[in-house]
Give the backbone structure.
Amino acid sequence: MARVPLLDGDEDPSMAELAEKIRSGRRGNVINVYKLLLHSPPVAENWFNLINTLRWGTELPGRLREIVIIRIGYLNRVDYVINQHVPKLALAEGLTQAECDALADWRESEFFSDAERAALAYAETMSRDVQVPGEIFAALGPHFNDREIVELTVLIGAYNMHTRVVQALDIDPERKTD
């Protein structure tokens, strides 16, 4: 159970516009992370804008984005993120369930391209060590331009923030509905 009560945005009329913005950008729902963040409307709005920009406003391919997000969920042991992205969002971006499962131990898998492996190594190093050795960073160069490297770096940083907030505040995954 979340350590801070969840809000749906309808309790306070001053949050109605923001709650509707979130619903419209999240498939009609205010998911639990936003229900928690609504305690601070400016944080909720900026978080929403950042995450949506990283997911829909970059040049990164959707498949790569989902691979990195899911891997960070595994690295940081955050079922909330994994459950949000697997299977629905990941499958929509072309990943198979087997590929999603393989992200728990991607180095032993044959599923991922050289570019995806470079991004996964980068995400893993940024997440675990923070400091990125030159050879890990250099491996991105043959696959990504400068803009994509910046976008990938910010995506990794943002989802590390995301997983740490979810973990610290013990946000429950959404209930599965049929």
